[in-house]
Amino acid sequence: MSNAIAAQQSNSLTTADTTRFEEYLSYLGLPTENIIASLPERQKIEANLPAFVQSLDPKTRQDARYLSKFVAGAAIGLFDASLNYIWNEVVLTLRKKAVVYGLDMFFDAATGGSRRDLYQTEEDLAGLKDNTLINTCRKLELISDIVYTKLMHILTMRNDIGASHPNSYSINAFELLGWLQTCVSDVLNDQPSESAIQIRAFIDNLKKSAIVLDPAAVKSMEKPLAELSLQNTDNLLNSIFGVYVSDKTDAIVRKNISLVSPHIWNKASEDVKYKLGVAIDGYKNNLYHDKYQLGSEFFDFCGGNKYKSLESRIIELDGHADNLLDARYSWDNYYNESPHMRHILSYIASEKDIPLERAQKIIKTVLICRVGKGIPYCEGVSPAGKPLYDKFFSMLGDQNVILLLLAMHSNEVRGMLDNKICQNNMVNTIHIVEKNVISDRIKEILKYLKTNSNILHKIHIDSNYKELTKNHINWS
Hints:
Elements: H1 2-10, H2 18-27, H3 39-55, H4 58-62, H5 65-76, H6 79-101, H7 103-110, H8 130-139, H9 145-161, H10 173-188, H11 194-208, H12 215-226, H13 230-245, H14 251-267, H15 270-285, H16 289-302, H17 310-328, H18 333-345, H19 356-371, H20 386-393, H21 398-408, H22 411-414, H23 420-433, H24 440-451, H25 463-469
């Protein structure tokens, strides 16, 4: 009988003599309240912990030193210490998941801007705060949204009621057991989602590619890529951008990225596109010339120039407008204008994308090209450029239509409008822009111009026209 009692006592968490421990703390003049959990709370742990531990795989238990430490803390009643032990294992496990997923992709999602270069190796994971680590794992689907919510709650409680923080709150047994189950079942014994594994495999295969992908291979990728969640699509776009601008990436890999990235770009969110635009600005400002050039290439083949920062768009559009004007007045302009106009349109998908600081210059330059040279062949307008010019003018609303009228009255355009062919081209342009006009007065102005198209070159001195436009154009 005495041996049975001894065996029962040896398997009990509640036999630890906490009274003597508290007396010793008191003897040292140290606090004793809210340090050790009460006997009833420890008894709840004792009653429920064995069933949970026995439910774990034997191999899991064999190496689970963190569980031994958890039990040791619970035995003496230091529940906050037990929580720390299990939480530290969660952090280590999440870091392992990051390594399995791929450190480059993980750090791309976790950090940004100039800080990204500080994170390269597995040791650098320790530099991430716990909440950043958890949030990034959620973004990459290494944990689910539900697990993320649970872990953030546990992290908050661990930080706010831990041993290192003064507080009057004590962890109760059922809370501790619930957090233990969440950490073990949902994190320590969990595997990354299928999507996360697929993305890792996709990036790895892309980085190892030794031949250029054929059209059929690129086409076959579109469906599985389209089925990714928006968050995973954003993460993938962010990662392949990082691979493209890396100085370690060879030409074939970059070529393959250029083939698949436009499809990923079209499925990604606006937010990640603007963030990549900021990244390109960072390369430029920090004198990473090669990365800036490669990033700009990436935006070109993805059709993403409108997502660059306003400052960059102003500077680059200004240069493209100059190039277009040079092509217009150079030899063989019919063939040389369209590439520059395509560059301009790559920054402008709608009227709101036209920077106010360069709107007048761009509109004037495009109008010079659209009015043409006044010769019969192709009506004096580049055949390849004409639909591009018309596409641009079809975006303009009331405010920019006024800028179009100012451009029409400029010396460069007005000097061509005594030519019948150029007059017709100007009228065709008016037909295009008037479809978007809201103001009745501007509609009236455009109608007057069409009615008097034979005097467009001198209509700026017409008294009726000046009266009609006085609210929009300063004639003094």
